# Entry
Amino acid sequence: MAAHLNRPAECYARPLGRYVWHCTALTAPHDRPLTDTTWAWIAARLIDAAGIAPLGDIEACRWVALRHARDHVHLVATLVRQDGRLPEMRGNWYRMRETCDRIEAELGLLPTRPSRARTSQHARSGYEG
# Structure
């Protein structure tokens, strides 16, 4: 799997430093368990918001979502697109934060603190993710 993910970076025109992106998305302990299908939907929305693989972009970066527990998923991507360009990720933290806010509201999950707090702590429980 790693070799497949790394292939675009290996073909990149100049040496890259850090080109692997990792993010963990998790739910609070009090939230209901999410299905694999729901986690896949969440992963695709977050990867899109990050600018790594915009929905419908077949030349986007290669990525994978790994779920090994009921409450979280790991997102891993190679930061070189299929077409050999680098992804546009400027401002992605804010887009991802807004996407998380929408996902929490749509799924009825415990909301995290407002974006201005710049933290992943959950609002009502003191839960730290």
Notes: The first helix runs from residue 2 to 10.
